[in-house]
Structures are given as C-alpha cells and as structure tokens.
Request: fold
Amino acid sequence: MIEFRDVEKSYGDNVVLHNLNFSVAKGDRVTLIGPSGSGKTTILRLVMTLEEATGGYIFVDGEPLTHEERGGKRVARSKKDQKRIRQRIGMVFQQFNLFPNMSVLENIIEAPVHVLGQSKAEATAKAMELLEKVGLADKANQHPTSLSGGQQQRVAIARSLALDPEILLLDEVTSALDPEIVGEVLAILRNIAETTDITMLIVTHEMQFARDVSNRVLMFDGGSIVEEAPPSVMFSDPKHQRTKDFLHAVLGNDEGTIGTH
Reply:
C-alpha cells in the first residue's frame, strides 16, 4: 500500500533520510520507533505530501505519489494527481489542528463536503456515527476550545476517518495530552485497528500501544532503519544494540523489554 524506494530527504546539508527502502502491505499496521530527530515524522509528512522528498520515489498502492521516472529522469507528478492520491490518506497530528471557529460537527464534515463532494446531510450522518464511535456525540455543536485535549484529539481522529481513508498516518497522537487521558485516545485507536482494515503507519513513543496494534515495528536512527521485526520480537528480544539502548531508555526497566498487554 505504501512503498519507499531509495528515498532521500535533506534540508540543505542536513540529510534526514538516507536511501530509505521499506513497504507497508495493505491492512498492515507498521510502527516507527526511535529517538527524536531520527526522521520518523518526516516519513509521515512525505506520505501526506506536506514535504517533498529530495530523491527517490514513494508509491501508494503501486502509483507514484509525487514523482515518477520518465525517460530515465525523476519528474514531478501534477498537483492534480497528487491531490487525487492524497484523498486516500488520512493523518492525525500531534497538535489537533481543528478549526477553532467551527463546531465539532462542522470540523468533521468540512472535507467530506468540499473535497469529496458529499451532501451536507450525508456527511452529517457519517460524522454523527463517528462521534458516537469516539464517545463524543453530545459534543457535536460545541467548539473545540471548550473541549479537553483528549476530546479534541478524538475529534481529530473522527475527522480523519470521515474521509474513509485507506491509509491512516498517526504522528505521536498522544504526545500533547496529559498522561491520565492518553489511555482514552489509545483505546479508540486500538478499536479502529481491530475493527477495520485501514492500513496504518504509526509514529509513537507509547511502546505498549505499538506492541498491541502493530504487525511490524521499525527502529529508526539517523534517518535509516536499524532493525525491523514483529512486535513480539522487537520488544522482547531486539537484536541490534542501538535498539536495546533505545528501549532501555524509553521503558526505564533493566531489561528494556515489554510483555504482552
């Protein structure tokens, strides 16, 4: 569903991603872990076309996302093509990015109406279903500023699902939340993982969540993949010393491992 082929990303002399190659199969949940600054969020931003790769190619369901090879040259695709592919992708950010001047319901129906061309009635019905799913149906007419951080993030999740994405990108979705409400947001995401076939690419420091929902975990450091494994292996018997050191630091236990939930 997502393929990175020889992808490079640099800002001037600062190379963030080096010759990156990996793929995510349809329906897979792949989690990227690693220290801050290792390039994880950049990967999500490239898939969302919020950033552009310096080199290489990204494919979504076999189709080039931003660039393709034509006549032996790397050529940019049209903005129209990029937009069409991007409509298949949803993203939930660290910061909730809700429109403060709109109600919760208006935030959710905005894109289905104006991007997908749904009728307001159709979009509203779907939005209310999603608000029910995230436990916020009673907040539909409130404005985001009147909600807690956890509630705002749940609205942001509902908004991303309103577009019926085939791919969902999750970027440290609990990092801006108070610790006591992290669980409620993760529970919603676990439910989505268990009840849908949406392909997920996840960046998180919540290692238990990564263990619970992932098919595969990739350890990043310095813009490259250090190690990849199923969560049962990555969190109980990592092979690479850099992975062991990272998990030891994050988990704060002597073994640097994590059991099943």
In short: The mean pLDDT is 92. The longest strand covers residues 14-24.
